[in-house]
Description:
Elements: H1 3-9, H2 25-43, H3 50-54, H4 64-83, H5 93-104, H6 106-112, H7 118-137, H8 141-145, E1 147-148, E2 156-157, H9 158-182, H10 187-191, H11 201-216, H12 228-232, H13 237-242, H14 250-275, E3 280-284, E4 301-306, H15 308-320, E5 329-333, H16 341-347, E6 357-360, H17 369-380, E7 387-393, H18 401-416, H19 427-433, E8 439-443, H20 445-452, E9 467-473
Parallel strand pairs: 3-4, 3-6, 4-5, 6-7
Antiparallel strand pairs: 1-2, 7-9, 8-9
The chain binds S-adenosylmethionine.
S-adenosylmethionine (SAM) is lined by residues 194, 200, 202-203, 206-207, 285-289, 306-307, 310, 334-337, 361-363, 366.
Amino acid sequence: MSIFAQQDQTAEPLCVFGPRNGYSPQIGVFVSQLNWMRKVVLSRLQNLSVEELDWLPHPDANSIGALLIHLAASEVYYGLNTFDSVPWGRFSYDIRKKWGVAINLGQTARVRYKGFDLAYYLLHLADAREHTLSELSKRDDECLMAIDTTWSWGPTNNLCKWFHVCEHESHHLGQIDLILKQLPGRQRSDKRSLQRGQASRTALGVALRRAAHQIYDEVPLVLNDPVAVPLLGDRYAKALADAQEDLNEDSSRLMRAWLVARSRFAEDHLARAVEAGVRQYVILGAGLDTFGFRNPHPELQVYEVDHPATQSWKQELTEASAVVVPDSLHFVSVDFETQKLSERLEDAGLDSRAPAVFALLGVVMYLTADAFEETLKYIAGFPEGSGVIFDYAVPRDMLPDEEIDARDELASRVESIGEPFRLFFSPDEVRSVLSAFERIEDVDDKELNRLYFSERTDPLNLKGRSGHMIAAFRGA
Ligand SMILES: C[S@@+](CC[C@H](N)C(=O)[O-])C[C@H]1O[C@@H](n2cnc3c(N)ncnc32)[C@H](O)[C@@H]1O
């Protein structure tokens, strides 16, 4: 029986440690911990192929398969020792024949445990665990605390021995994770959530903050966005309500200020370009940007481009809300890394002979240098009056010491949700990639504060050297 099945049979929540039905109080608590540990291990194994279970990061390493059978063997040995009182090292020949290779790992295990599928390992793990649980259910707390004075590292009770089984599983989980990271062909596709067909979670984080600005910040708002809250709908109403909790923490306030200033900066530049005659606006990596729904420029056509996964999620939210999609808004799904932007946009109606403004807000840092350069080259091919608005982040080593922790925290958070930062620029580097554009405005936190926050009476404002906004236009 698999551990998943064991979990499903009980109404006891996995993550609430505590006594468990069918066990003495302390044993029950320990069982809840054992189960939790196992669930974490199993969560890493889904869909592993035989080749992946056998794969060795270097010739002397253990494969994931060998590590799994080793976990099962350890549990069997500890069971024999604690339930059947077999002294360590005095296991029968039959037991050693069956489990000895697995317990010792090394070259013999590399040869023996090869070519088995995941079900084979799961079965052994589940059998060993079923036996453990059955034996634990027959014992009481006193037995759990019984001390073995002959144990090699000194007097040790059964709880300590079984805790060691759990700790040992955690130790090998670390090795399994390391191997998983190196598995050929898995690194990128497993890490990058968009590539796995999941909608962007960073886009949700941004949208929640823009919506929080509408509800919780003092008026006048930096970004007036009456669609931000309705678009999130019931599905994210609780997340939005929860956002109130950390609203005034520094990191949350600074991030919110940055995100609303970023959109406002883009929309202000767009308005100037529209006044100068531009009639096309392309939002690359639009996420849950709402400009297209509330476009105030009657002649402006808006093209929202995003990864197919993010775009279909946005369309679901749009349909579920009362938000109306105007005729001027066109959705174009493109993966910038693998698909040709120009063809998809022009099929949707974008005229490459007429000026257009492009925006990439919170997007550049997620792209490869090649994809970004290719995109800029395409934009630079549009006629005079065209431009691009985007934000970029300076490299970590250019940041003052006091900002490094915040950068690292953000980078590790976005990486953990499958959207790692990949591209940074110094102000000089950004100018050099923009060599095709004649008018370049590079704006830092101080200038954005002057533009959008200087009159505010609340503490909402920007601080930090990391983020810059660029508006780069063609023509004098
Ligand atoms: C941080 S979100 C920003 C969303 C939006 N610009 C905003 O400010 O609300 C990043 C966006 O870039 C999109 N994106 C990232 N990599 C992409 C790719 N390779 N192709 C298309 N879109 C991509 C994501 O789907 C997501 O919507």
